[in-house]
Every structure is written in structure tokens, then in C-alpha cells.
Design brief:
Largest sheet: 6 strands, antiparallel
Shape: elongated
Mean pLDDT: 90
Order of helices and strands: HHEEEEHHHEEEEHHEHHEEEHHHHEEEEH
Helix content: 25-40%
Strand content: 5-15%
Number of strands: 16
Structural class: alpha+beta
Oligomer: single chain
């Protein structure tokens, strides 16, 4: 009996072992299938993201080409130098294929705090030029320190005699003080006394607003930007008229300044031109009637700025606007470092005014209330008036101000299909030579999402549909 039962039991055991092996093999094959399926799913998503990123890159390139076209058209129709204000349809969620782009701008009329982003171009002439600004102006920049102020002066000083020059040789690795003009504002990161808190402040992603994840150091709900927000190296304008002719140099005028006489007589009546010349102290510059006696002795009158010329001329702002862009105080090919008083923030205007925040805010308030009176720098005199007479004198003493802009920043952020593939690139366009050209390009994608909560919600909503 026992002998006959053993073969059957042995066969059942072998069959059970085979079943277990088959089950393990099946389980292994299913696991491999699931593993590869999951890997392929991840690869599909990664490929989708790469395609979206490429679409976003192309949207940015398309935006840059389109802006080049718009700026070229302005040059062609004679409006080069006027700040390019763009409609919402051209700077917010602009479709390029299945991707979209935004132009991250700045609102220089309002304090920078939490809220909606401003969209559009950024005027480089609204900032302080690191190569041209005086130490007194640089000192008043937000978060600026005395050490960094001195380091800026030494870095751009071609003589190389400043106190911070030897600091860089002691660093690891060592490098030399440039002792030459700044080429980009990013060079500030190399300077003695520069740290990210000073340079960037609370605006970690550099989009101009206080995002929920950013530190509100002052605990007042307002963004406190760093130095980088207010400086540039690109602000310059051509020192010729739009037709290529020379401007009238008012730094030293004589009673025989035929250029000035011609400019006034072209734009005003003979009587009004004579009145202006009389106000300027150049009354004898008017042509003498035959037989009126010997010519008057030559008179020389000097002006440090077009604003000083306006203050003495007795012209109305409307009249001065007709000739304002035809005046200069230099013989250089370009005028560098002027600040566009129509677009500069209160912080930058404070630097020009020697720290007078009240006068700076008065200028901002005036241009908000009188947007149609900003045709020339003459409105500055009306805005400051007698209340800030000392500040007005400060602005007249140096050729600080302009109402023209020839360099623009396009901070372009884009997303690809379904809100994926976020990219962000900053371009700086220069139109001062007549033909728009890109003089600077910087990838800012690594700074993270810069389009704010509202845009993110819209992108996610569109993705869900």
C-alpha cells in the first residue's frame, strides 16, 4: 500500500512545484511589463515636456523677432526715441503656435508691492547708468552701501588707483579689478561689498513684484528690490537730429549763434524768436536793420542743460517741446547716462535729486495726474515749482534729464502646449544707431516661475480644458 502511494504523491509534488515556478515567472513577466510600461509613460511625459520646452523657446525667439520688427517700424516712421507702449494683446498671453509668451514689465508710477504683474517693455533710460552716474547719485540707490559705492567707482576708473583695487587679488580664485567701464550690470556680482541681498533684495525671481514665496523684510507688504532693479549700462541717445543734422549746442552760445537763430525762426514767428533771444540774454543776435549803427559786441551765454535753457528762455512748455530734442550740451556722437524723467521710478529720481524723496514723489505724482503734459522736460519745472526750488536748481546744473528712450528690455516668459515647458529670457534692444539690435541676452529660466499666481491659475485652467 505504501509503495503504491508514493509515486502519486511524488507526481503531485512535482506538479505543485511547476505551478509555483510558472506563477513566479508570470509574476516576473507582469512586473517587467509594468516596469517598462511605467518607464515608457515617464519617457512619454519627458518627451512631451521637451517638446513643450522647445515650443516655449521658439515662442520667445518669435517674440524677439516681432519686437525687432516693431522697433524697426518706429525708426522708419520717425518715432524712434519715443517709449514703445504696447497693448495687452501684444504683451500678455500672446499665442505663437500652441505656445504663449508674456512680456514682464514694470510700473514706475506706483510703489512695488504684492499684486498683479505689469506687462510691457522696460525702459533702460528709466534707470541710473553705472558708467555715468556720480557718487552722490549712486549713494542714494536703495540698499546701496558705502563699500559698494566705492567699489563701483574703482571698477570703472581707468586709472586704477581706488582703495578697493587690491581686494580682488586676494580672492580665491583671484582676479583683477576691471578699471574700465561696465559692460553689463551683472558685473556688480564681482565687486567688493556686493552680495545677493544688496543686489536683488526681496525680489528673488526679479519680476518686479512681491510673490508669496518671497521674503517681506519690511513687513509692510511692499517689495524692497535691490540695486539691480535701478541700474543700467545701456542708456544713450544719438546726438543728432532725426534727419542726421547736428543739434544746436547750447553749452556756449554767442550773439552770432546762427544755428540757434535759425532753429527759433523756423519754429516761431520773428517777433517771438526775438523775445526768446532777449530772455536768453542774446538780444543782439537778432539781425540789425541797415544803417542802425555799429554792431553790438559779442555776448556769450552758457547753459549746463536744456532744462536751464528752458528756465531762462521764458517759453511755454508747449513752445519748448517744439525744439527740445534739437538742443545739446556736448559734441560727442552720443549722449550717455541721461534718465528719462517720464518713466523713471521715484527711487531713481531721488538719486538725481540728492536724496530729496519729496521732490521725487512730486514728479511721479505730477506725471500721473498730467499724462498729456509730458512732451518735453519742461514739465519738471512746472511740477517742482517754488516748493522744490533747490531740487529744480540741482536738475538744471547738470544734463541729467531726457524724455527719449532708445534702449528697451524685453523680459520674455513663455510656456509651451498645456502650460508645460516654462522658459524665460531677457533681451535688451538698442535703437540708438537707427537699426534695432539685440545687445544683451540672458536666460532667467533658472529663477523659477515669474508670472505670478493669476497667470498660473489661468494656465492650469486652460490645461484642464
Amino acid at each position: 500500500m505504501n509503495t503504491s502511494a508514493n509515486p502519486k504523491s511524488s507526481r503531485c509534488g512535482r506538479q505543485g512545484s511547476v505551478l509555483v515556478i510558472v506563477l513566479w515567472i508570470a509574476f516576473g513577466l507582469v512586473s517587467l511589463a509594468l516596469y517598462f510600461a511605467n518607464s515608457m509613460n515617464f519617457e512619454l511625459r519627458a518627451s512631451d515636456n521637451r517638446v513643450s520646452a522647445l515650443a516655449a523657446d521658439q515662442a520667445i525667439e518669435g517674440a524677439a523677432r516681432y519686437l525687432t520688427y516693431l522697433l524697426a517700424q518706429r525708426t522708419a516712421n520717425g518715432s524712434n526715441g519715443v517709449f514703445l507702449t504696447m497693448s495687452d494683446s501684444l504683451c500678455q498671453s500672446v499665442p505663437v503656435g500652441e505656445a504663449r509668451f508674456w512680456l514682464i514689465g514694470r510700473d514706475t508710477n506706483n510703489p512695488v508691492g504684492p499684486g498683479r504683474l505689469c506687462f510691457g517693455l522696460v525702459d533702460e533710460a528709466s534707470k541710473l547708468n553705472l558708467n555715468m552716474a556720480t557718487s552722490n547719485a549712486i549713494t542714494w540707490l536703495p540698499r546701496m552701501t558705502m563699500d559698494l559705492t566705492q567699489a563701483i567707482l574703482d571698477w570703472r576708473d581707468t586709472n586704477g588707483n581706488g582703495p578697493t583695487v587690491n581686494y580682488y587679488a586676494m580672492q580665491q580664485p583671484s582676479y583683477q579689478c576691471k578699471c574700465d567701464p561696465f559692460e553689463t550690470v551683472d558685473e556688480l556680482r564681482l565687486l567688493y561689498g556686493a552680495d545677493m541681498d544688496t543686489l536683488v533684495g526681496g525680489d528673488a525671481n526679479r519680476n518686479g513684484i512681491l510673490d508669496p514665496n518671497e521674503t517681506d523684510a519690511s513687513q509692510n507688504g511692499m517689495l524692497n528690490p535691490g540695486v539691480l532693479e535701478y541700474v543700467t549700462v545701456y542708456s544713450r541717445e544719438p546726438n543728432t537730429n532725426s534727419d542726421g543734422t547736428a543739434k544746436v549746442n547750447i553749452s556756449s552760445l554767442t550773439s552770432g549763434s546762427t544755428q540757434l537763430i535759425s532753429l527759433l525762426q523756423t519754429n516761431f514767428s520773428a517777433a517771438q524768436a526775438k523775445t526768446i533771444l532777449d530772455k536768453l540774454g542774446l538780444g543782439s543776435a537778432a539781425p540789425q536793420p541797415p544803417g542802425s549803427g555799429p554792431p553790438s559786441p559779442a555776448i556769450t551765454v552758457r547753459f549746463a542743460s536744456p532744462l536751464a535753457f528752458y528756465a531762462r528762455s521764458g517759453m511755454t512748455p508747449t513752445d519748448f517741446a517744439l525744439i527740445a530734442t534739437n538742443l545739446t550740451v556736448t559734441t560727442n556722437s552720443y549722449v550717455s547716462g541721461r534718465v528719462n524723467v517720464n518713466t523713471a521710478s521715484a527711487a531713481v529720481l531721488t538719486c538725481l535729486l540728492g536724496g530729496d524723496t519729496g521732490a521725487a514723489q512730486q514728479l511721479v505724482s505730477y506725471r500721473q495726474a498730467n499724462p498729456n503734459n509730458l512732451t518735453s522736460i519742461a514739465w519738471v519745472a512746472d511740477a517742482l515749482g517754488q516748493t522744490y526750488a533747490d531740487s529744480l536748481t540741482t536738475l538744471q546744473a547738470v544734463d541729467y534729464l531726457t524724455t527719449q528712450s532708445y534702449q528697451f528690455t524685453a523680459d520674455i516668459a513663455a510656456v509651451g502646449p498645456y502650460g508645460r515647458g516654462y522658459r524665460r529670457v531677457k533681451f535688451i534692444f538698442d535703437t540708438s544707431s537707427g537699426t534695432p539690435r539685440i545687445v544683451y541676452r540672458q536666460d532667467l529660466s533658472h529663477l523659477g516661475w515669474a508670472l505670478g499666481k493669476e497667470v498660473r491659475e489661468k494656465v492650469l485652467l486652460a490645461k484642464g480644458t
